[in-house]
Amino acid sequence: MLRIAMIGGGATAVSLLDSLLAQETGGDVAPEIHIYEPAHLGHGVAFRDDLDCALINLPNGRMSIRDDQRDHFLRWLRRHEGPPRPGRPEPGADGFAPRRVFGRYLRDHLAACQESARERGWRVTVHPETVLDVARAHDGGFLVRSDGGTRACTHVVLGVGPGGPADPYRLAGSPVFLGHPYPLKDRLAGISPGSHVLIIGTGLTAVDTVLALLAAGHRGPVTMLSRRGVLPEVLAPARDWPLTRADAAGIEQRKARDGTLTRRAIWELLHEELAAAGFDARAETGWYRPGRSAADHLRHQLTHPGANAVQSLFLSIPTPLARAIRAALPEEEVAAMLNDYKPRLRSLQCPMPPATARSLLSAMDAGQLRVLAGVREVRSARGSVTALAGDEVVTAQVAVDATRTTPARAKGRQGRLVAALRRNGLATWNAYGGLATDPGTARLIPARGAGPLGIFAVGELTAGDIYYASSLPAVNRGADVVAAQLLAERASRARPARRAARQVSTP
């Protein structure tokens, strides 16, 4: 019998339950599923109730809990929004719904999956508890210990959401410091409308913070700052880009030529691929060199929406090829890539909707919003916060931490769980600061000497400093893989039992 512990009850849990139901073809013994989620069942932290200015980052027509039905959310949205009327047209495939609306979709679909599971005789139990430890049991299974007790299971699936803020300048405890901005509607409500707000970070969380301040009518200056000053890219239209240079054959040729794969070789292949498609490779990659204005880059992307060739190329690289590239890079190349390219790669992997970019650019052009690079220090004293960025000294009345830790540096609930897994020999790190998994099965790679285990990880915990594994399409693909593994294992366990039953019944 499968007894599955699903740790984390957000989008990963919904996707896994949906995948199990879709792939299951019947069996002698119904599975038993335990979902551990202390606070955000269904929607997780990312899609909880919040301001409407916080939008999903993929269009409605590409945002779905089912990887093979990209319009699944769009169809739900049109049913629940009701018929179009003046001032409120029908939701379009190219639109971007508020994240809270997508959270409602996830909760609704989880409830539908739970009902479908009950009709099949499955037992699905939700535990509003925090998991503290996972250890191997003597029978080859696992013991999952939470703040509500200890339960035995045959398999564990890790789907815990994002780690907490990084607080890179150790400002915690300062009265002018907000350690994280979510939920936006509550955390930012106390900021004086005329105050100068300093936002530490320039990624999607920082963008959400700016949008929330603008939506609330904030009048004071807002400064976003980070070491590189790189904003998320503006999401470009989807493009079919058959790779001809930066494909598996091209990677193997460079490895054979150089004896290993290098950053320089990847850069060469990128330029060759752009040139082969008719683009000026030097001009296209010029926007990614240090010193370019964030406002100018936004303006270029918004006025040339179909011209973001680098993003289109990057998003066209198939997942197996991306894994092969990461695996082929030597450790010293990985370290150099983290140092040189991390912000730019994240900006490509985690783009923002065009409407969001227009709001930022409008605030920049009005002189209210600035983006600074080269931050070296941020300190708090005497009721204000001061940042040193490049040659500038910036003083503000409030600082908001919009950074986020990787799993390797996570604290709180995620950090304690990961520490327990590693302490018990169940998990190891990959080169990018996430939990190492087998790419074909999503099983955790345990400490040396241990064989394959029935413990899987999908989403945020497997992400690291460069690649983004918690996007919804990546989560859905991971859930499909895990569901197939679990059901195959159930079938393999059932075969010996059926043979034994036939032998007993044979006269």
Can you describe this structure?
The protein is of the alpha/beta class. Helices cover 39% and strands 15% of the residues. Helix 1 (11-23) packs parallel to helix 3 (99-119), helix 5 crosses helix 13 (354-365) and helix 9 (294-303) packs across helix 13. Mean pLDDT is 88; it is low at 497-502. The strands form 4 sheets. The chain has a 5-stranded parallel β-sheet with strand order 3-2-1-7-16.
Write the layout of secondary structure elements.
Layout: E1 3-7, H1 11-23, E2 32-36, H2 72-81, H3 99-119, E3 123-127, E4 131-136, E5 142-146, E6 149-153, E7 155-158, E8 177-178, H4 184-187, E9 197-200, H5 204-215, E10 222-225, H6 248-258, H7 263-276, H8 281-286, H9 294-303, H10 309-316, H11 319-328, H12 331-349, H13 354-365, E11 369-372, E12 375-381, E13 384-389, E14 392-396, E15 398-401, H14 412-423, E16 455-457, H15 472-505
Parallel strand pairs: 1-2, 1-7, 2-3, 7-16, 8-15, 9-10, 9-15, 10-11
Antiparallel strand pairs: 4-5, 5-6, 12-13, 13-14
Helix pairs in contact: 1-3, 1-15, 5-13, 9-13
Taken as a percent bin, the fraction of beta residues is 5-15%
How would a textbook summarize the main sheet? 5 strands, parallel
Multimer state: single chain
Provide the spatial order of strands within the biggest beta sheet: 3-2-1-7-16
Rg, rounded, reads 24 Å
Q: What is the structural class?
A: alpha/beta
Percent in helix: 25-40%
Distance between the termini: 28 Å
Q: Quick one: how many beta strands? A: 16
Average pLDDT metric = 88
Shape call: globular
Number of DSSP helical runs: 15
Query: Which consecutive residue ranges, at least 5 long each, have pLDDT under 50?
Result: 497-502
